[in-house]
Amino acid sequence: MTRYVVETDGLTKRFGSLVAVDHVGLAVKAGEIFGFLGPNGAGKTTTVRILCGLMTPTSGKAVVVGYDAARQPEEVKQRIGYMPQSYGLYDDLTVEENLEFFGSIYRVPADERRKRADEILDLVRLEEFRKQYAGQLSGGMKRRLSLAVTMIHNPELLILDEPTAGIDPPLRRVFWEYFRRLNQLGVTFFINTHYMDEAELCDRLALISYGQIVAVGTPTELKKKSIGGERIELVTADLSATEAMLKDSGFAREVTTSDGAIRLIVDDAASTIPQITSFLRERGLEVLQVRQLQPNLEDVFIKLVQEAGDTRRP
Amino acid sequence: MTKKEVTHLIRNRRVFAITLFMPLLLMTIVGLAFSGEVKHITTVVVNEDGRALSQMFVDALRQSETLRIRYYADDEPQAQALIRDGLAKVAILIPRTFEDDIRLSGATVYVLVDGSDPVSAGAVAPVVQGIALGFNSKLRVQVENLILYNPSLRYIDFIAPAIVGIFLQIFPMILISMAIAGERERGTIEQLIATPVSGFEILLGKLLVYMGFGFLSATSMLVVAVYAFNLVVRGSILLIVVFLALFLTASLSLGTLVSAGSRTQMQAVQTVMPVIYIMIFLSGTFYPIEAMSPLVQPISYALPLTYMIHALRAVIVKGAGLEVVTRDLVFLSAYTVVMIVLAVLVFRKKLE
Questions:
Q1: For residue A53, what is the nearest residue in chain B, using CA coordinates?
Q2: ipTM of this predicted complex?
Q3: Which residue from B191, B197, B198 is facing A84, i.e. has the nearest CB?
Q4: Is the dihedral of CA B2, B8, B13, B15 positive or negative?
Q5: Which chain B residues have any C-beta within 8 angstroms of a chain A C-beta?
Q6: β-pairing, A230-236 with A254-258?
C-alpha cells in the first residue's frame, strides 16, 4: 500500500479578504520528488508554511509524516527539514557552528551531530569552508549550507521552498543531483518551484494558481491532459488536401494548419504516425516531413491554468 | 530630490510620527515635569512648644506652596523615622522653648531634610528661612539644616542609583528587542521556528543572556560609583540584587513586547525612544515627583522605573530595609509578572 507523507484536505488560508490557499488537497507519496509548481503569489509558500506548522490554516487539515501540522506542529518539525525561500542562517556563525546549532536544537546527540555534519558538508561540498562565517559565503554556497542545515537531523521529508531561486543554471543542476542522491537514500521531497525545467525533473507535480490546485500528475500525464493527447506535425506537398483528408479520417482529434505545416492531436503518436503515413500514401500524398511535437511544460501550465480559470469564472 | 525625501518621510509612518510628535512630546513632558519651583514637599512638623505663637508659625508654614504638611510627630526620632521610611522629605522642629526664645534673644527652628533628594532638600531651606523672616523679623529666627543622609548633599549619591535604574530600563530592553527583531529582519526566525525548539526556549535563551549582561552592567556601574566617586552602599546587597533581578526581567519582557510590533531592528529602536524619554524625565530621576505637575504625576506613578529608583535610593543611600521598600517590591513584582505573561503570550512561534 502506498504510504503518504503529506496529505491535505480542504486546506484553506485567508489573509483578510485574500484567499491565499483555497481548498488545497494534496497527497505526496513516500519516496517521491513532488513538485509544487505555480507562479509567484499562487500560494505555494503559504501552503508549505502550513505543512511545516509555521502557520495555522483557516480551515482544512494537513497531515504531514503522520501528524496534524496544526495540532502537533512540533512532532512534524522534528521529522521534516524545511528550507525557507529566504536564506535564514546566522551570518556571524561559521558554517560548522550553524550546523552545530541547528543540530543541537533538533536534539541530535553531539557525536552523531559531528558525524552527520561531516557527511552533509561532504555531500554539498562545503567541507573546506566549514570554518568560514556563513556571511562570507557566496549566494550559491549559502543555499547549499541552507540545504545542509535542513538535513542535519536526518528528516524523512524535505520541504524546500524555491531552493534554486536566483541560482544560475549550472548550480541548479548540481542541486538536483543532490536531491536525486538523497531521494535514492529514501528521502521524500516536496519542492516549490516556478522553473519549468525543474518541474520536468519531478516524479509528480501539482499545479497551483490563485490558491487552487489546477492539476496533479506526472509531467507526461499533465502534458497529455492539457492538450488532450499527443501532437504530431507533418508536411506534404498539398497541405489543404491533406488537411481535408485527415479531418475525415478519424485518426486525429484535431487538425489544424499553420506556418506551412499540419498539426494533429492524437491519442498515441508513436502508433499513429506510421498509420497516417501509409493512409496518405495510398491517396497519393507523400509525407515529406513528420515528427512528434514535445510540448513544453510552460505551455501546458498556461493552458491548464487558463482552462481552470475558464471553469472557475464562467 | 527634496520632494522625494519628504515622500519617504511621510510614507514611513513610524518615523513620520516620531519626527512630528517627538519634539512636542519631549518638551511637554519636560515642561510639565520641571516647570516652576519645587512644590508640595511632604513635611512632618514636630511642635514641641505647642503654645499660640508656635501654632501661628505652623499656620504660616501651611500657607507655603513648597511644603505640604502631612504629619505631626511628637518628637525628633519619630520625624526621622518618617523620613527614613520615605513618607516625608522634610521635618521641621519647633523647640519647646520657641515662644520664650523669641521673646528673649531669638529662637531656632530646625529643619531636617532628606539628603537622598538634594533637589527637595536644597529647595526647603530658603523657603523656611523666608517664612521665618516674614513671620517675625524683629525676632531672630534661625534655620539649621540637619541633614540625615547624604550629609554633604552630594548630587552623585542622588543620581547614581537612578542611573543604574535607567540603564537597566533602557539597554536590556533595546538589546533584546533588537535581538528578536533582528531574527525577523534577517529572516532567521523562519528557519528557527521551523525547528522543534519551543517559543519559550527561544525567549528564555535570550532573556538569560541579557539578564547576565544587565547584572554585569549594574555591578560595574555601582563599582565605579563606589570606588571612584565614594558612593556608600548602606543597605543590603541581597535586597539590591532582588530588585535588579525583578526589574531586569520586567525590562526584558517589555523589550520582547516592543519587538513583537517591530519587523526590523530600526523599528524596534524607534518604538523604544519615546518610551525612554518619558521614563527618564518622569521617573523622578532628576526631580522629585511631588514637585511635578499633577497632570504627569499619575504617569510617574505608573512607571516601574519610579519604584525602582525609589527603592535603589532608599536601600543604597539611606540603608533602608525591606519594610521601607515593600510598596516598591510589590509593585515591581506585579509589573514583572504581568510583563512576563504578556511577553510569552505575544512571542508566539508562528508566522502570521
A1: B194
A2: 0.78
A3: B191
A4: negative
A5: 186-198, 350-352
A6: unpaired
Spatial distance between the Cα atoms of B337 and B244, rounded to a whole number of angstroms: 15
What string of H, E and C letters represents the secondary structure of A61-95? EEEECCEECCCCHHHHHHHEEEECCCCCCCCCCEH
Q: How far apart are CA B244 and CA B251, in angstroms?
A: 10
B187/A88 Cβ within 8 A? yes
Type of residue at B253: S
A147–chain B nearest CA distance, Å: 11
| pTM exceeding 0.80 | no
Q: How far is B199 from chain A (nearest CA, A)?
A: 11
Q: Name the minimum distance, in Å, from the CA of B266 to any CA of chain A.
A: 19
Report the residue of chain B nearest A151, measured CA to CA.
B195
C-alpha cell at A150: 535542513
Comparing CA positions, the residue from B324, B304, B305 lying closest to residue B314 is B324
Confidence of residue B305 (pLDDT cuts 50, 70, 90): very high
Distance, CA of A179 to CA of A187 (rounded, Å) = 9
A217 phi and psi angles, rounded to 5 deg = 165, 180
Q: What is the pLDDT of residues A60-103, one digit of tens each?
A: 999 999 999 999 999 999 999 999 988 889 999 999 999 999 99
- Residues A15-69: pLDDT tens digits? 999 999 999 999 999 999 999 998 888 899 999 999 999 999 999 999 999 999 9
